[in-house]
Write a structure and sequence with these properties.
Layout: H1 21-24, H2 37-41, H3 45-67
Amino acid sequence: LSEDEKLKNPPKGYDKENIAIEYLKLKSFVVGAELNDNDLIKKDLSKKIHEHFKVLMPFIQFLNQALHS
């Protein structure tokens, strides 16, 4: 988790004692996966990408739920 551009204070409406306050101060979340040149020319590239997204999906759902709550 990158702390670039992290808020100095809790977001409006959040208690500064919230156990997740350091995460709530983050302004963005970045997730990556390392692929080398060989990966990019393999026939199973789309399968590999799909597997990465399957692993990432719970995180995406968590963020979406937080935005819509």
